[in-house]
Every structure is written in structure tokens, then in C-alpha cells.
Amino acid sequence: MEEIIELLKQNKDNEAEKIINNMLQDKKNKEKFAKLYHMLGTIEERKEEGDVSKAKAYFEKSINAIPSFRFSYYSYDDLEHEDNNIAIGFLKKGLKEFEQDVELYRRLFIRESKKEKNKIIEYFLDNNTFDEDIYKNFIEYTYREKNYKKTIELIEKIKFDDKSKNNFYYLLKVSSEILENNELKSKEEIIKNIKDIINEDIKNELKYWHYIILLYLEDDAESTGDIIDKISVRCQIEDMYFWEYEIDIDLNDLYMKILNELENNFTNKDQAKVRIIKGSYLNSKINNGEDIKYKTKDIKSLISTLKYYSYEKEIYILIFNMYINIEKSFEAFDFAIKQYAENKTAREVFGKKKYDTYLECSNKEELIKIVNKLIILKDNIQNYDISVEDLIKTFIDCIVKELFKRKMYDYIDRLVKDIKTRELLKMNNIFEIAYSHRDKDVARQLYEYLLEEEPNNFAYNNNLGVIYKEDGNLFKAKEYFEIASETDPQDDISASNLKDVNKKIGDLYEAYEEIQKENILVLSKLILLYEQAEDRIITCSYNERPKILKTSPEKAQELFETFTSKKYIVKIKSQDDWGRNQYRLNELVSDYLQERIEYIEANKEYESIAENINIDFLSSIGYKEELKNKIRKIEDKEIVEILLRDFKECAIAMASKQEKTAIVLSGSMAEALLNYKVQEKGIKNYNLTKDGKEKKIKVKDMGLADLLEVAQNENIIHQTDYHLTQFLRNYRNLIHPSVELRKTMNIETEEAELIWGILKKIIKDVL
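^ that's the sequence the OP posted. Answer follows.
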């Protein structure tokens, strides 16, 4: 046996096992079988992949051997986790053989029902049997079952050499008496003893348990004030779990009884301190995974303590954690955000706290409410002693991260809207903001910043390409899609984007080929859009189109449809709040227009000439059928054709503001009409005074001046027409440029309109 034990000590289990099995074959060693089977069970347990069932079988053989080995009862009990009754049966069997074995009683006590537990306790009390280990189990059990009377009885039976243990059980006895509602005897002595315990517990191993009891027992207000001042808000009270590996004591009933009474009895700052102690204790229990219930009103009462303890950082954390522990995530953040904005101490606390875990536990509705709370604060930041940068570092950055994980992109956009780009660039979650931001200019700047650090990042390049593509900047988009595709050739997204943008670029070239065939009118209208554009972007509503294109509404809509169908412009954004759409000029078309702009500008002069050449305007200045019909009455159809042609050209000259042409044509027509009317009267020659001498002149050779004299003499025209036509005669000579230079005549619109009027009067009066 000594050899086996030595081998086991040296962990030479295989050698020991061989010797044990040989000894079990020899019936001479029968009295040693129990120990030998126990050793085999122990060896099986120690194996790296030991068989529990096999180990239990060895221990069972040891138990059933005669005599048995008591340590096998312990070992079997340690391994039996499936059937409690089997373990109890073996422990009871062991007590028949080892009836004074306290360890067997202790193990049986742990496994037995409440009724049987109480029998075991009474057995030990009746026999006045004391064992430190089993009494710890008795005391822990009776206290947990709220059998405080029995707890007191058991504690009175024990006495330890270790003073700290005696102090522990003394406090437990007093606690039990308080919970039993016993009238404490020798209260003054108890107070003295507890004060002694406080003095001895230098390291506060009893976690303010003694202070709380003393606070409850003291009747003197000054004394209670001194005690409560000694309990720091930084030091939370706790249950006595694993106290020096003795027993577990849950002090919840005691502390709630004491603290609730104190809270009702105290006022002002002392009441606030009690509330803090209570809140801290409850929160510690939840942190330990215990099912402790408290309500929102309990937290609100704790918030009221900030009136007295606003400088204590621990209170802010405590309140936040208590909200979190009852699954009030929004209320926790609402408190944190409000205090952060208004309180310097809170800013120090919440500015250092990490929120990722708490946000992960928040539901969608809570997250939305937190976002709205931050937006309100951000929009009113000028009312607080904090900056947007402070909000970003403390709350916004981490919330953006959580929102992105949940694909709540719209809420990211709302949260960061109006935050300047330079502030966004200081955040940790820049990519998440760029991906979610509706302002593509901001998103573009963010992606470009990220690319400075990672030029070949697939996501950055692809997403930036998408932005340029949506804005119609296809060549720029292509550059980024190509980088993304090269970075990750297996990715279908960038490959698809590149294919699509190449197709659209093909459309651009088709549009470029098409625009070179357009007439000057289309080009002139496109140049109006070109001049309106900012960075090739045209912003206008449906009703603004005619004004921009300087044409009728019908024509403006027709032109826009043409421009979009031919890909000269591409719509990139639908109606905004003012009903305006956005279009991007085809890059190649824009370049072509830039090249042609001088030519188009020069042509604008001719556009203006033709602007009024239409039936309505010509009619408005007197070019009507009434006067044309007068001309048609002339019998000489050749003259009629000439006069109608000249009348039309004169009217067109007036409409296009070609004043000299109109004046010359008016004089020419007046001369032709008078010549015709004179000859119509059969006059072929006429005597006129020239330089004081009378001279016969052929009518066909007469100029306008001579014809006016003949027409007046022969009553062909009225005296008024005669004088008016003299005015026309002076300007008629402008056909000769030298006359215009010599007479320094100004050809103005007013003169042309007057002469046009004279011509119309002559037609009407003469014909």
C-alpha cells in the first residue's frame, strides 16, 4: 500500500493501477479492497479524459466492500449530479457505518429536503454536538429561509477562536434579531459592541454592514449624523457573499427594512445620503445577476439627491446604470445627455464613459428617441457651455456606429445634418456617415478624406464612384469604379457599376455626335442653359423653363424634352421643396458649347433681328390686308407685284429694326406710287421750273421731288401728304452713304416709325 501511495504522489498512475489490479486478484487482501477500489476511482478521475461512470463504479465497489472506505462516500457524492436520491441513499448508508462522521451529515444536509434538513439541525442541537463546518451550513440555511429565531439559536451555540469570525456571526445574530422584530436587550451594549467591531474592521471587510446596523440602532440625531457622514457615496454596501469563504448571506431584507425606515425618518442631506446608499446597494445586486425589482420612481428619488451631491461623480454613473438595469435605455441616455449639457461634473463622468454595450441593448424605438434628444440639443447648442465637437466625441460617434449596424441610415443623416464637414472628419465612424449622408457633396468629401489613408480601399472607391455617377459626372465615376474593380476583381458590384457607367459614357458620345448636327437655334437655347449652370448643374422648376430659355412655355417644354431625350442634359434630382429639378449638362456637350460660345454669341444679334418677325407683330404695325388690297387695285400687275414685295420687305425691316432699309424702301414705294398715279392721268411730260427757267421733263425720269410737285399741282395728293412726303424725301436720299455722312443724319427708330406711317397714309390716300 505504501508503494502505491508513493506512486500516486509521483503521478505514476499507470504503474499504481497495475499493482492495484494485481492486489485485487488476491483474496488475502480483501480487507484492503475498499481502499484499493477508492484508489482506482481516484486514478480514473485524474485521467485527462476520465470516465465519470467508471470512476463512480469504483467508488460504489469501495462503498459496498466490507469494511467500506468512508472517503469513497465523499467522492461518490462529488460525482453524482444526475440522481439526488442515489447520493442521499449512499450517504445514509455511510452514516450507519460511520455514525459520528460530521462530513457525511454535512453532505446529507446539503442534499436533503427542508423537512429533513430541519431534523438534522435538531439532532445536532439536541445532542449538543458542535462542528464549525456543518454549523455554517445550518446558519446559512436558516437565515436564507428567514428562520431568524433558529439562526439566533445556532449562533448562540458557537464560539470561534478567530475574532473576525465572531464579529461576523455577532452581526448576523443582531441582524436576525432586527428582522425577527425582537426587542433588543441591552441595546446600549450592542451599540458599544458594534462600535468596537467598526474600530477593529480597519479594512472594512464587513462592507459597512456594521455601520448600517449602528445607524438603525442609534437614537441620537447627532450620532446618526456622524455615522452617515462616515459612509462615503463612493463605497457601496454589499451582501456578505463568500465572506472569507465562510457562508453566503443575503442582506437584502435587512437593508431594505433599515434603509426604508431611515429614508422616511431623515430629511434633506441625510435623507439624500440614505437614498444613495440604497440605490447603490440595489444596483450592486442587479450587477451580481440577482432578480431585484425597483421602479423608475426609485431612480427619480435618487436623482433628487443631486441637489446636495451634484459634485459626486459616482451618483451620475449609479443613476445611469440603474436605468440600464431595468431596461430603460432611453431614460438612461436622456439623463446622461441632459446632465452632460448642464453640469460640469457630469461632463467629466459621461465624457469618459463607453456606451457601445448599452446601445446594443437598446431597441429601435429607444435609439430613435435618443437620436431626437441629441438633435434637439445640437440645434440649441448655443444655450449650453459645450460644443458640437463635445457631443460628437461623447455620444454621436458611438450612436452612429450602432445605427449603421442596424441599417438605420436615415437617422444617421438626421443626426449629423448641419454638422460641418471639418467636425465630421474628426469622428471614428467617417465611412458610416459618408454612406448615410444625403448631402452627396459632404459624402464625397468624407470618402476623399478616407481615400487619402487607404487609396485602394474597395468600398471607398466604389461608393465615391456611385456619387459621381448619380451626379452625372460619368468620367470621374469611371475612374473610381476601375480602381474598385482592380482592388477586388471578384466583386460583382463594382464590375456592374463599371459596365453601367461605360454604357452611359457611350450615350454621352452619341449625344456629342448629335449636337454637332444641331442648328443655331438649338445651340443658342442650350447656351442659355450652359450660362445658367453651376458646375454643369442646372436647377429650375417647370415654370422657370420659359424664362431661362427665353421662349414660350410650349416651346420651352418641347426643348427640354428634346434635350433630355438626346442626352444633352440628364435629370439627377427630382423636385425639391420649391418644386425644382436638377439636371447635369452632358460633359461633352458642355465642352462643345464652350468651344462654340463665341459663334453662338455672335449669332444672338441675328436672333434678335428675327425675334418680332411674326404675323401678330407685323399686323400690329399696320402691315394688313386692307393696305395690300389697295395696292392690288393698280391695273399694272407688274407694278403691283413689285409694290407688294417692297411693302412686305419694308414691314419686315420695321419688325427687325432695320431702320435705314425701312426708310429707303418707304421712299422708293412713295416714288413708285406717285409715278404711277401721274402717268395714270395720261401725263407723259410736265413743265417744271428749274433754276428760274421752265423746263419740260419726262415723268418717267422724275425723282420724288419732281413727282411731289406734279402730284400737288394735279391734286393727286392732299396738301398734308405733300408736306409729309417732303420729310420722307429728305430721308429717301439716305440710300447714298455720302448723304448720310454729309448731312449728319441720325437714323433712329422714331424717324423710321414716322416715315413708315407716312408711307401707309400715302397708300391709303392715293390709291
